[in-house]
Specification:
Blueprint lengths: L4 E5 L1 H5 L5 H10 L5 E6 L4 H9 L3 E8 L2 E7 L7 E5 L7 H12 L2 H4 L3 E6 L6 H7 L3 E8 L2 E7 L1
Parallel strand pairs: 1-2, 5-6
Antiparallel strand pairs: 2-4, 3-4, 6-8, 7-8
Length: 154
């Protein structure tokens, strides 16, 4: 099963008072069932999130700055929004470091209001004791083709 995160940054279009709606919708039309659309915008696009929710998309939002929001749209069902990180292609220990840095920088997972889904090339054996020490639950799915999905939640 192939997975990818598709980045789309429409901040400059929005700053120039342009309308990126067609570009965004075209991008939605091009992503696969297991892909994530990662949209960079100058505001939280609540109407778009509602419309895409009716189309079966879940979303997770991170506010980076007053005028910088990153919204991930994905189709997998989950009890809380999931943030996605693709660690494939990184040399150890980078996947573990990257995951722990995200966990340390985002308290939503501690509060149980967001989960994290990481895509690794192999089961992250050294990460699992760290997750257990933090009292985080995890599910591991080996999809083959060098993709192991780890879903982490409170």
């Amino acid at each position: 099963m192939s997975r990818k995160i598709v980045d789309l940054d429409v901040r400059e279009i929005l700053r120039q008072h342009g309308e990126p709606f067609d570009l965004i919708m075209d991008t939605f039309g091009q992503i696969g069932e297991n892909d994530v659309l990662q949209l960079h915008a100058t505001f939280e696009p609540t109407p778009l999130m509602r419309v895409q929710g009716k189309q079966g998309f879940q979303n997770a939002v991170q506010q980076v700055d007053d005028d910088y929001f990153i919204i991930q749209f994905y189709r997998q069902a989950a009890s809380v929004p999931l943030w996605h990180i693709d660690n494939r292609g990184l040399e150890p220990p980078q996947p573990m470091i990257r995951t722990l840095e995200w966990l340390d920088g985002h308290r939503e997972i501690e509060a149980g209001t967001m989960g994290l889904e990481i895509w690794n090339e192999r089961v992250p054996a050294l990460l699992l004791p760290e997750l257990e020490e933090r009292r985080l639950r995890y599910e591991i799915t080996d999809e083959g083709a060098m993709t192991v999905v780890v879903r982490i939640q409170r």
